[in-house]
Structures are given as C-alpha cells and as structure tokens.
Amino acid sequence: MTLNNKVKFIQGNQAVVEGAIAAGARFYAGYPITPSSEIAEGSANRLPQVGGLYVQMEDEIGSMAAIIGASLSGKKSYTATSGPGISLMSENLGVAVMGEVPCVLINVQRSGPSTGLATKPAQGDVMQARWGTHGDHGIIVISPSSVQDCYDLTIEAFNLSEKYRTPVMFLSDATIGHLKEKVVLREIAPEEIVNRKQPNCDPKDYQPFKFQDQEDGIAPLAAYGSEYVFRITTTTHDERGMANSTPANADKFIRHYTDKIEKNKKDITIVRKYNLEDADYAIIAFGCTARAALEAVNIAKDKGKKIGLLQLVTIWPFADDEVREVLKKVKGVVVPEMNLGQIIGEVKKINDYGIPVEGLSRVDSLMITPKEILDKIEEVEKCL
Amino acid sequence: MSVNKYDDYLIKEKLPVFWCAGCGNGIVLGSILRSFAQLGLKKENTVVVTGIGCWGKADDYISTNTFHGTHGRALGFATGIKLANPKLNVIVLMGDGDGATIGGNHLIHAARRNVDVTAILVNNLNYGMTGGQYSGTTPHASYTTTSPYGHVENGFDVCKLVKAAGAPYVARGNVYGVIQLQKLIKEAIEKKGFSFVEVISTCTTHYGRLNGMKTSAGAMKWIKDNSISIERAEKLPKEEKEGKFVMGKFVDKDIEDYTARYDRVISKAKEII
Amino acid sequence: MSKTCQIILSGVGGQGLVSSGTILGESATIYEGKNATLVSSYGVETRGTFTKSDVIISDGDISYPEVSKPDIVLALAQVAYDKYAADLSEDAVLIYDNSLISDTKESKGKQFGYPINDMALKLGNIAVANIIAVGIIIQKTGILKEESVIEAIKDKFAHKPKVIDLNIEALRKGIEIGMEV
Amino acid sequence: MKKITIDPRLCKKCGICVEFCPADVYTRELDGSPVISFQEKCTGCKLCELRCPDFAIKVEVSKNDIK
C-alpha cells in the first residue's frame, strides 16, 4: 500500500480537523466560539463525509458531556473551543478524568480573562489547562506551533488519549489556529493509530476501572452496546464502577488519575531542541511564541551567538527532566510567553542551579517578537 | 434470551434503597424496571443515564449499562451516547433540579433536537438531596428551606416547556397513579424520538414536612387530591385548576429523529466527495 | 541563503485580501514546493475596518510568520496607505490603488499607483481587484510563476468554473500593468 | 389464593400500602410496620406492590385466581 500525501495551504484550525479524522475521530460536539469556530465548521463539513457525526450543542457544558457519552459508545470524540468555553467545559472535563474517558479538547486560546479580546491570541490558559477542573488529577496538554503540528499532534493527542484513557487538551492559540501555512496531510498508516484497549475477559467478570492487573496500569474500556455491560460513575467509585466512599478507595483512585500520567511522562512528553548542544543561553518556549524564539535563535546564530531553544510541545505533564538538562548547561534562560508568567513558574521550581531565569511577558494580544527575546537575553547577559 | 422479570434489572444486593421512607423515587424506579421487563430490553443494549440528586442515585440499583455524571448534564451525556450508537436504548433519569433548573437549557434543546432518548423527570418540587431548598418547579408561596416566608417565584410547568420545545412525546404521571405511570413510561421508551415523562412525586422529609404533609401517606394523598386528568382539566373553570397537576399524555406525534435526519446528511456529504 | 519575500496586503475588510494571500500561499506551497505563511489581522467586524495580511514566501523554513521588514506592501485603502507609506524602507516597494487613494506622500521606497479598482470594474467585476493585485505583486517580486497562480485560481474556483477565466484575465492584466513603471 | 409477603429488611414503614389498599388488607403495628391482617380480602390488584417505594412487597396471584 502506498500512502498518499496531500500538500495543502490551510489554517491550523482546518488542519486540526484533518488530524482528528486521520486519527479516527468520528464524533464532534461543540459550541462555536472565536477563534476556534473553523474547527466546528470544518468538522460539520468533513465528518459526515467519512460517516462521522457533528452535533452543535446548546453550550460548552453540553458539548463536553456529549463527547464523553459518544466516547463511551465507542466513537473517538472531540470538541473545540476557546478559553471561555473551557471554563464551562471544566466541569465535565472532571467527568472525563474521573470516568477515565478518552476524548480530545481543543482550546484555541484567545486573550482573556472573560470575553477579553475575542479575536486576538494569548497563551493565558496554561494553568487553566492544568488545574481548570477541581480536584487532583493528571492531564496531557499538547501545544502546536505550526499548521503541520496541528495535523500531526492532533493525531498524537488522540493516540495518547486512547492509550492512557484520559482527556487530552490540545492547547492551540489564535495565531496558530488562523495561520495559513503549508501542511502535508500524510496518509496515516493503521499502525500509527492507537485504539483503546478492549476487555477480553468473560463479560460477567469485566470491571471498567480495574487497572491494577494491567501491565500498563490502564483498565480496558468496553463500549456501550457491546457484550460487556458496565457502569461509569464519576462519583468516587471502585473497580466495578460502584460508588464507594471509603478512604482507602478514594486514595487509591485519586492517586491513580495522577500516577497514570506522571509515571508515563517519558512516553508522553515531546520537546524540540534547537542549537542547545553548546548554547550559552537558552529560550524555553511553546506554541506560537516558539516560532519567535526559533527566529531569535537563527538571528543569533548568524551573528555568531550561541543561543538555544527548548520548545515544550507537551506542556503537561511538564518536561522537567529536559528542562533541568538545559538549566544545568547554560548561563541563563529566558521564558517568553503571552501571559504574565505561567510556564516560567514551573521552570523556576526546578532551577536548582542558581542561574537567572527571566520571563518575557506580553498580554497586549501581540506576538512576542524575535528582537524582544534577543534583547531580553542581552539584558540577562549584562547582569552576569 | 430476553429478560422479563423486572427484578432481573434490579441490583438486589444494593437494597434497601437509600431514599427516605415514603419517597416516591422507589416507586418510579419500580415502574421503570417493570417497563424494561415488559419490553424485554437487553441489558447490553440499554444505558441508563442519571443526573445528580436523590433521583440521580437510581442507577445504583439498575443492572443495565449505566452512566452517572454531573448535575443537570444527563441529557448531554445521553445525547452523545445515543448519537454515537443509535441502536442503544437510552433512558435518562433526572430530578427537577437536574432537568428543570440547572439543566433546563439542555432539556429544551434535547427536546428540540429530537434525539431518540427517553427522559424521566421525577419532580418532587424541591431539592431533596441538599436539604429541601426551592427548585425551578417549586410552586409559588410554598415553603422550602430557602423560601421560609413562602416562595416568591412561580414554578415551571415542565410538560408545557418540553411540549413548546417540540418533543414528539410528552406526558405526566404521578407516584399515586402507578398503573398509568408505568403505561406512560413504557410508551415513552417505545417512542421513536425524544420522549418525556414528568412524574409528580413526594418528598416527605423536606417539602412534605414544610407544607403540611406530615406523613408519607399524607404526601401521597396530597398528590392524589391535587392531580386531575387532562379530560377533567378541560372541563374545569380556570380557578379550579389553579395549583393542580394535570395528568396524562399531552403530545404523541411522529417527528423524524436526529439520527434519521443525520443519516441523510451523511449520504449527501458522501455524494460530494 | 534561502530566498524569502515578505509581503503585506492591506486595506479594509471585504476587499478579498485574505483571499489574495491564500492564492499566493497556495501557488507557492502546492505548485512550487516553497514554504509560505499567511497571518491575517482584522477587527471584530468582517467588513469596513482596517485589515492586513502578512504573507511570507520562502525557499527555506519560515519560523516567525509576521512580516518584520516588508519587501512589498499592497495598499487598497487610504487608511492602509497612510499606515505604511511613511515607514517604507529604501528597498521596499509600495503598490497602491490610485482609483481609491488620492492623498499620497513621499517615502524612501518605491511607490507605484495603479487604478486597480477601476480596472476590475472594467473587467466586469469589482471582486477581481484582489487578483489584479496578485498579478502586480508577482510581476514586481518575481517570487512566483504565473502558471502556479493560474493553477491556484483554478483550484479556488473549481466549484464556480464560470469565473475562472475572468480571474485569469484579471491576473494577466495585473502582470501586464505591473510591467509598466 | 393470593400470597402477600413483606420483606421486613426492606420495609421502611412508610404506611403507603396500609393507607391506599383498596381492600383494606393491611393494618399497622404501633411502630408503623404493616401487618397483613385481612389477607382473604386481597383482590390481587398489586397496587401495594407497585406503590411500595422499597421493593418490600410481593403479591403472588395463582392462576386459579385470575377470572
């Protein structure tokens, strides 16, 4: 079989739709919101062409509920929104965590808080993505920096979601969502697609939350309508899905929601390294800002300066090993982000090397420029 | 193998039910399970979706597939479950808090969207689980723990709301008229499209206690005395209908459901590519 | 060193600037194997307010997608002209629609005024003004081949074959006047 | 013959069966528990079983009783 590659010049949001379909997603429920609406429109157009289903719900709470329901009926499901929508979805994001329901939420970030600047980019939802829903839990958050990423990493988001039975957030932003760029829509080979593990036990023995006897620590998930009759409750439950409020049971499961992500960090996290081998200074960036950072690295290189970039493609779980490796080697680090300093806090937490870690924040809806990053590095240099 | 004993759908080891003495929830649960048995529903193909509240605990006792999520959102989950696998029988259990208050918007849109699920809303006129506060159906001037001087607002007529939203099947029963109730529930499950049954129920512990119904039997009697049939309601003058619950079937018509319509969308879309 | 061309397309909402940018980008990426980016910024209203699109076309990778130093600026409205004319660098080119923009000023870079809008009307449809502009741009920059743009136009209007010829005519008209000084 | 059984482990003594039995089959103990005092009056209508909120009552009607 030869795989077909299609070259397109499309928006990040459109590439997300193609990625979702390539990953095998066949159900979308959502509520339109700028700057994510092209994902709704694209899904309404494309899903029925592949036998999938689009439904526009009355709000984001219902949308999140519907994709959870559809996922439990065996369809890979997703929704797309922006920060205000994530605020509403956070309620049922907890349901997906607690019910261990695979699904993908796309947040095309815009400037906030509240309605904010509806059409303008920001990167202010980093912590909301991590802690938006209440209670302790792990979460996987992936941040694209190109239209190609929007395709490739959407597939990755579905794969991780299926593998770890967890919601995955795709943290895009208005710049990347609306950026038109060359993308190769690779035809995806079946072996590149991960589908959730199915039970193979006797139906009467099936326990939808029994993770302990699984080598990978993830319980298989049947679909409603299969021979397996099962219960999903997002009240604290036992292995069978029966409400169970004993302290030991609560402890076991609440830890599980974090452990299954944190213990598999090596498998989950993706970072990109540019010019870091002999760098004197490093930039740690993600999303659209990583593009300015890469430009800065290239400009510096032309000028004979040794500046490297660590791009966090996976934001959560936080790539602390890779960040530590950088902190250990360089004289100083600059963390540019279109917020008042969210990721930088994580970097500082593990800065045991006493090097300066400086933030570069912008919340005026404009992209951080390569020059601003280079100026900041110069500032750090001068202080040393 | 078809199951036709209602208690095959009941998880007996979870009994006694956790509800208060005289609570109507158990009566409605019994009616639902008996309807399942009459219809011979396969557990594998049936999903019961519940909300939050006293009635939201009903799934604890039901042996089909179940889903128990967040307050008011049961219809959202059910929409996804059903649309992703239209072969499933999806039954949604909500209280008046779930269905008519926090989730009221989901209710009217589910009715309008005409997803083929059956929603059974048990209306006990207050929030039982949290201690008897007023809900979206609490009648004007009645007493709850948050309307200690008499309720300021009016309550919803939920059936009228769902009817106005365009549901193809809308009915109301109560926990006194159990034979009619079971008939309505069975019909609703059989109905293609969004079917809705409101059940007027009792909350002896809270609403009953604060509104002069001292015993479970007293609360049941209050429901009996304040319920009238559609036929009778049509003949009564307006002032005599005031505060009465009208029982019976308000809507029973055929409207193509979401899945049937969407199947045509799929055919159309596939033609284009 | 890879060859890169930075383009700003500016005007007001509704002039088809995103569409022009998309045609340029598609021609470059799909038909010439280059890279291209298009970033558009606009107000909340779709029509009538200042908008601009940043297009970068390059043989190499494009990291930062916003235009920092334009090689060519297209201005289709006075408000757009005013924004860019003054700061134009020496080696940059400004193309403006002189049927819409009358108040011009001196600048360091070269300026060329063409009656783009009037020409579109003459061709029979004001909607092709943006394609005329694309023609001028590819003529002035030499960044793309005419054939690539024609292919992109055919793709864009595949569902409306009637307007393909009109748009190709508009493109050629743009190339033709672009040759004039 | 109709056979009524009440499961005392499930009964919460709400009194609904006693109050609404059309044939007055039941009486109440001082603690509120229902007592099947007049089994012979039972018509087998099963309303008590259907109205019991606690799944505590079973009314069995043998074939001979169905007219």
Automatic annotation (TrEMBL), chain A:
Which UniProt keywords are given for this protein, alphabetically ordered? Oxidoreductase
Mark the transmembrane ranges.
Answer: none
Q: What Gene Ontology biological process does one annotation of this record name?
A: response to oxidative stress
List the coiled-coil residues: none
- Record domain Pyruvate:ferredoxin oxidoreductase core: where: 279-373
Q: Write down a Pfam family by its short name.
A: POR_N
Q: Name one GO molecular function term.
A: oxidoreductase activity
Domain Pyruvate flavodoxin/ferredoxin oxidoreductase pyrimidine binding per the UniProt entry, residue ranges: 18-217
Q: Which Gene3D superfamilies match?
A: 3.40.50.920, 3.40.50.970
The record, for PANTHER family, names: 2-OXOGLUTARATE SYNTHASE SUBUNIT KORA, PYRUVATE-FLAVODOXIN OXIDOREDUCTASE-RELATED
Q: Return the protein name.
A: 2-oxoglutarate ferredoxin oxidoreductase, alpha subunit
TrEMBL record, chain B:
Species name: Maledivibacter halophilus
Q: Which residues form the Thiamine pyrophosphate enzyme TPP-binding domain?
A: 58-199
InterPro entries xref list: 2-oxoacid:Fd_oxidoreductase (IPR051457), THDP-binding (IPR029061), TPP_enzyme_TPP-bd (IPR011766)
- Listed name of the protein: 2-oxoglutarate ferredoxin oxidoreductase, beta subunit
Q: Origin, by domain of life? A: Bacteria
Offer one example of a GO biological process linked to this entry. cellular respiration
| Gene3D superfamilies in alphabetical order | 3.40.50.970
Q: Name one GO molecular function term.
A: oxidoreductase activity, acting on the aldehyde or oxo group of donors, iron-sulfur protein as acceptor
Keywords noted in UniProt: Oxidoreductase
Taxonomic classification, please?
Answer: Bacteria, Bacillati, Bacillota, Clostridia, Peptostreptococcales
From TrEMBL, chain C:
- Write the protein's name: 2-oxoglutarate ferredoxin oxidoreductase subunit gamma
Does Chloroplast count among this protein's keywords?
Answer: no
Q: Can you give the residue ranges of the Pyruvate/ketoisovalerate oxidoreductase catalytic domain? A: 13-176
Keyword Oxidoreductase set for record: yes
**Keywords of the record:** Oxidoreductase
Gene3D superfamilies with a match to the protein in the record: Pyruvate-ferredoxin oxidoreductase, PFOR, domain III (3.40.920.10)
The record's InterPro entries line, in alphabetical order, gives:
2-oxoglutarate_synth_KorC (IPR052554), Pyrv/ketoisovalerate_OxRed_cat (IPR019752), Pyrv_flavodox_OxRed_cen (IPR002869)
| GO molecular function terms listed in the Swiss-Prot or TrEMBL record | oxidoreductase activity, acting on the aldehyde or oxo group of donors
UniProtKB/TrEMBL annotation, chain D:
GO MF terms listed in the record are: 4 iron, 4 sulfur cluster binding; metal ion binding
- Residue ranges of every copy of the 4Fe-4S ferredoxin-type domain listed in the record: 2-31, 32-62
Q: Which UniProt keywords apply?
A: 4Fe-4S, Iron, Iron-sulfur, Metal-binding
Q: Which InterPro entries match?
A: 4Fe4S_Fe-S-bd, 4Fe4S_Fe_S_CS, Fe-S_Ferredoxin
> Known Gene3D superfamilies for this protein?
3.30.70.20, 3.30.70.3270
Q: Where are the transmembrane segments?
A: none
* Stored Pfam families: Fer4_10
Taxonomic superkingdom = Bacteria
Please give the name of this protein: 2-oxoglutarate ferredoxin oxidoreductase subunit delta
Q: Which organism is it from?
A: Maledivibacter halophilus
